[in-house]
Amino acid sequence: MAGPPGRRRPAGLGGPALPLLGLLVFLGPIVPSVSAEEAGGNRVHVTTNRLDLLFSLDGASPVTWRACHPSCAQADAATGTSVRFTGNDDPPQARLVLHGPGPAVDLQGLRFTADLSEDTRTRIVTFRSDLPVDGVRLVKSFAVSRAGYEVVMTARLLGPNAAAFMAGRRLDLELDAGRGLFPAPAAGFAAILERMSRVVVGEGGVRVVPDDRREPIALRAGDWTGFRSRFWAMLLRSEGAGALGPRSATSIAVVPADEPGRLSWRYTLYSGPLEKEALTHADPALEQMLFSGLWSWLRPLSFALLFLLRGLTAVVGHPGLAIIALALSVKILLLPLTAMADRLQTQVNAVQARLQPGIDAINAAHKGEERARRTLALYREAGVHPLYTLKSLLGFLIQLPVFIAVFDMLAEDFDLYRVSFLWIQDLSRPDELLRLPGCVPFFGCHLNLVPFLMSGVSLATLLRFRSPVLTPPLVRKQRRNLMVMTLLFFLLFYTFPAGMVLYWTSTNLFQLVSQELKRMRPDRRQVAS
User: Fold this and answer.
1) In this model, does residue 298 exceed pLDDT 80?
2) β 51-56/43-47 pair status
């Protein structure tokens, strides 16, 4: 039922990889951080359980920066995932740039030596180089977390002339969004989800920096800034206050506050998934990045639904099956609200059926203002408010926050990333059953099957719809309205991630089953009598 294995083992499933992972974790402290071959030449290679960094001795900056989930060993074995924040054709990350009077000094052009060390929590590489200025030496170090996705970078200027050299100068840190952080192109409305943004995360929440913003943005001590895509983030935090200088849509510079005599700088970088455990390990404040597009009062509902989905995954064994179980669970939890919505809809249908003959007669005999006047008079005679049909929307509006929270949760759930289910290769992407001979504007280049299944279930539901109070013309009118809604949902969901469409398809299927069970109840009573 779970389909072919995906490129990543779903959460909640065991297997041969778990004992191997345990062995790797056990051996971690005694494995050298860098082998002799890797440390030689022009490169220094530092690896941990979740990070893989390759430094160049020219500039002492990472030229390859890879993050893995849940581990690099599993990513290499195709049971996990990874992303390259810096790779081929990308500029080195975390570049130090000097600004100020006097001769220009290109820190990236310096040749460094490297020393390697480690402790129980981090693996550390320290670089040293003399500046082309007498009595000034630059020391850079990167402490790479063994268990998380954090890297602590420090820079110090040493020597008898260091203070005089820095007088009137400042040291900025530049960060770029590597090609690996850019999401895959998406067609249709799915393009809303697949974006890369510059963000600032702090006490005030998550702020998205517009792509065309070039003016500096003040940063308080403890603020994080950087880049995020749908599932990954590359962020940094300075030890003190400063400013964010948006250099371009894909590049930023962190400018420290003016502190005369400053000769040391410290930054913490997070390069990893937008996943709760990983984010809070780096800083509890980073949890704000999850479901940040929702209103503050709605985020707890998304977290509760995510917790429910995790529990269902542990029970049924696969995220795809858990999504179907989630649709059923939410429907059961919403039964009181659904019953109220059905009751309000039945009342509206009864009033509509009672008034429709009079409305039809008025429409046939009158036009313009006279038609409106007589229609309002008919409402008054029947004791009905002209906006009575809005009652049927009340039940839907009460359930709307749940639907929004569910879909935002499914859109951002990292555990659906690159997980296969049945013919779906990736639950976080459209199912892409077949590639079309050519690309169709808005719809993309693939045939997505799940949206057709969703629409088919919706059509079956409306074709089987019956109402004991509506007249045949009103039933036909309501079916036309539902047909239009089905078409709109098809257009909306066609390019959406398969996990989201699977949830809505399951919801519609359970609605069809519920509708058929309700139709059977009168027959059972008649047989019993």
Assistant:
1) yes
2) antiparallel
Q: Which residue has the tokens 């039922």?
A: 1
Under a CB-based contact definition with an 8 Å cutoff, are residues 500 and 493 in contact?
A: yes
Is the separation of the CB atoms in 155 and 172 below 8 Å? Answer: no
What is the C-alpha separation between 349 and 343, in angstroms, rounded?
10
C-alpha distances in Å from residue 44, one per residue of 27, 85, 107, 259, 307: 22, 17, 18, 33, 41
Using CA atoms of 54, 56, 57, 60 in order, give the dihedral in degrees to the nearest 10: -80
Beta carbons within 8 Å of 495's beta carbon, 6+ residues apart: 186, 187, 188, 189, 190, 191, 430, 442, 443, 444, 448
Given a cut of 70, is residue 23 above it in pLDDT?
A: no
Tokens at 57, concatenated: 């001795």
Length of the chain counted residue by residue: 529
In angstroms, the CA 287 to CA 340 distance is 36
Phi, psi (5° rounding) for residue 474? -70, -35
For the record, the structure tokens of 528 come out as: 């019993």
99: left (phi over 0), alpha (psi -120 to 50) or beta: beta
Residue ranges per domain, the chain? 17-290, 303-528
How many whole angstroms separate alpha carbon 194 and alpha carbon 231? Answer: 9
**pLDDT for 368:** 78
The greatest distance separating any two alpha carbons of the chain, rounded to the nearest whole angstrom, comes to 105
Contact 330, 306 (CB under 8 A): no
Sign of CA dihedral 270, 271, 275, 278: negative
Per-residue pLDDT at 426 exceeds 50: yes
As a whole number of angstroms, the distance between CA 66 and CA 50 comes to: 8
**Three-class SS state of 217:** strand
User: CATH code for 17-290?
Assistant: 2.70.98.90
How large is the average pLDDT for residues 54-69? 94
**One-letter amino acid identity for 499?**
G
- Cis peptide, bond prior to residue 70, ω within 30 of zero: yes
| 420 touches 426 (CB < 8 A) | yes
Which pair of tokens denotes residue 59? 């500039």
Q: How far is CA 57 from the centre of its chain?
A: 35
- Residues ≥6 apart with Cβ < 8 Å to 467: 349, 474, 475, 478
Q: CA gyration radius for the chain?
A: 30
Kindly report the pTM of this predicted structure: 0.82
Q: Which residues pair with 114 in a beta bridge?
A: 127
Please state, in angstroms and as integers, the Cα–Cα distance from residue 339 to each residue in 342, 404, 468, following that order: 5, 20, 17
pLDDT at 96 over 80: yes
Residue 72 class from Cβ within 10 Å (0-12 exposed, 13-18 middle, 19+ buried)? buried
Contacts for 235 with CB less than 8 Å, ≥ 6 apart: 199, 201, 224, 225, 226, 227, 228, 269, 270, 271, 286
